[in-house]
Amino acid sequence: MRIVGGAWRGRGLAAPPGLGTRPTADRVRQAVFDMLLHAPWGGRDVVEGASVLDVFAGTGAMGLEALSRGAAFASFIESDPAALKVLRANVAACRAEARVEIVAGDVFRVGQGRPASLVFLDPPYGQDLVPRAIARLRDVGRIAPEALVVAETGRDETWVPDAPLLAERRHGAARMLIFRLS
């Protein structure tokens, strides 16, 4: 696993052993960032200068990819101790500590923080966590109005956001949904 674009392109990222963390594949991250940068609803300003929130962060690959491509700041929320250890190591390997907040804990207990304009959610599949996490994060001010959300669910999950979908793609076992909150 590696950063696929930007200033840290090619930099390797560690992942915890076992199946507890399911890192987003390089090719899927590339496809997501290609859409964010080149789709009619996207553009460079979606990522460059953005405040990013990477929820159920795991290795931090999505948030670090955004930082590599010019995001100003990234907050990571992760509760698994093994994933947190790897996340911290990946942030340190990128020398990104000054541009990062790591929240060690449950997304449903997280407190207030910097509002993000770009949000990545990659929860465990099949638990309907995306809508609940969005509601909690909005309640505590961690999601800015009109934020762009990239949510990963299981391929066969049927949840769709209340907001119109900008894009939906399936990659292996994953289903990527991109939408803008109103």
TrEMBL record:
It comes from the Bacteria. Coiled coil: none annotated. GO terms for molecular function: methyltransferase activity. The keyword Transferase applies. One of its GO terms (biological process) is rRNA methylation. The keyword Transferase applies. CDD domains: AdoMet_MTases. InterPro entries: RNA_MeTrfase_RsmD (IPR004398), SAM-dependent_MTases_sf (IPR029063). Keywords: Methyltransferase, Transferase. Pfam families: Cons_hypoth95. This is 16S rRNA (Guanine(966)-N(2))-methyltransferase RsmD.
